[in-house]
Amino acid sequence: MSLNFFIFFAYYFIILFSIIGYGYFLLSFEKNNKNYLNFGYIGIVGLFFLIIYSYLSNIFLAHSKNHNIIVLIFGLISFLYFFIKYYKKKFFKKNFIFLILFFLVISISLFIKKNHDDFPYYHFAYTFNLTQNSLDFGIGKINHGFRTPSSIFYLNSLFYLPIVEYYLFNFSAIFILGFSNIIFLKKISNFFENFKFKKTEIDSINYLSLLCFIFVNIFFYRLSEHGTDRSAQILVFVLIIYLLESFKLKDYIKIDLFFISILFTFIISLKAFYFLYLLFIIPLFYFIFKKNNKVSLTIKLLLFKRYSLYSILLIFLVISSYFINTGCLLYPISFTCFENFAWSLSIENVNKMNDWYELWSKAGANPNYRVLNPEQYIVGFNWVSNWVNNYFFNKVSDFILGLIFIILVFWFLFRNLKKKKFKEKFNSFVLLTYSVLILILFEWFINHPALRYGGFCIISLIIFIPLALYLNSFEMSHIKFNKIAITLVIITVGIFEIRNINRVINEVNTYNYKPFSETFYTIDENYFILQKKLESLKNNNGFFSKTIF
């Protein structure tokens, strides 16, 4: 094994602990928050904090190696402080050991020779630019990839570190995956909460969390394909679980609005179209209002608390990044664009790119193919028949077959159980949440019907929520459920490992990949084309202009 292999893993765990340190730090400002044992929860909070920091700091300085080392060190100091503080707490050591073991298990997904097509095209370029330069106006004119900033790029830019340099630019995805998985496990069973069987009532949230865990780790096992899309969809699963769990509470005061607000803004910061998912605020607003009967108090709880200010700040930073890059508040929505700035894109250009995105998602184009009449193709439902033939019966059908398999597994395991006397039903809050899911599904199908654009999570949740309610209509002892759940978790993790091992073997055979001696993914000159173009424009202008054009 090479030195780079050990350095790779050393940074992996250093970053992990630093993220948790920042999570504890931000959590310390929230009174009576009892999630100090839930490292999944703390990790998501830590990532959220670092995203805000990354946006703010890049206004003034580049995320150089020295800067990033200092950021990591402060996170580690915070981690050590809270580690000492909580070390003697009940179950803390067990939870911490579980955290290390779990991230060690999923680390197999980090061994990648070839990344997805968008990574060298603009994901890498955008992230690398953040490490070389502070705020630049108008970089969207260089390439359309620079018009769609994502918080994951800003987060990855903090992992530009000595020795490894830019080879950790895909690390954010595994932390989102890992922390989300730990949250799923905590929601599945009390066993994963305190590592012993404890008598508790099993409900639909347990089943839904188990379904989400299985789905995410079987369908999203390939880290190189996560990009910005799948990371967001994983967090959508977490958000819906927390929302539905909140609707079971009798007192709105007990709702974890701090974490829910973080999830909302984390998701929409990853990709522009996830702003639509703010519609899930409607059932949340309705629930809080029904419990307190005051519109003013409901608005205050959602918008004018400290946790709301964190989220509002991130939304402001995300919208600002779009505006600084393109002149649009939300690219590529043309009515949010302003043409009267030096760096602005033309409305015509924005509309053309919007049509291209729509054409691509409706199976009208790919790197090697384009329909003869693109303008006519996307009008109305002209695209449907081609989409069905070339996309539905290629990717969507395989995806649905996978969902059917999961359903059959659950039916087999729970088929002979006795029905409960009192069934859990769709209450008004769950029904409203489900209606929002249906609405988003229609929007997805009409405008961007590609699975990567939210299709995975929306279709799955539309199936999983009723299935979870149905499963909860059967009598199930907590001991039996825990045993079945643990068995399914072990099988799922096993499938995750086997599929990743098989993927690595294929990359070894196809690309002569050497994971133990040449651990890092492949980098070639194509990765730096956009950066060279950017630097050339600056040099030709004779100065490092804050406005490129």
Topology (SSEs and partners):
Layout (H helix, E strand, L loop, with lengths): L2 H25 L11 H20 L6 H22 L5 H15 L11 H15 L18 H6 L14 H18 L2 H4 L9 H16 L9 H18 L10 H14 L10 H12 L2 H9 L2 H21 L20 H15 L3 E2 L2 E2 L3 H4 L6 H31 L13 H20 L7 H17 L6 H34 L17 H12 L9
Antiparallel strand pairs: 1-2
Helix pairs in contact: 1-2, 1-3, 2-7, 2-11, 2-14, 4-7, 7-9, 7-10, 9-10, 9-17, 9-19, 9-20, 10-11, 11-14, 12-13, 12-18, 17-19, 18-19
Structure description:
This protein has 549 residues and is mainly α. The protein has one domain (3-345, 479-540). The protein has 21 helices and two strands. The chain has helices spanning 3-27, 39-58, 65-86, 92-106, 118-132, 151-156, 171-188, 191-194, 204-219, 229-246, 257-270, 281-292, 295-303, 306-326, 347-361, 374-377, 384-414, 428-447, 455-471, 478-511, 529-540, and strands at 365-366, 369-370. The protein has a two-stranded antiparallel ribbon. Strand 1 (365-366) and strand 2 form a beta hairpin. Helix 12 runs antiparallel to helix 18 and helix 17 (384-414) runs parallel beside helix 19. It is globular. The protein starts with a helix and ends in a 9-residue tail after the last helix. 42% of the residues are buried. The model has no long low-confidence stretch (mean pLDDT 89).
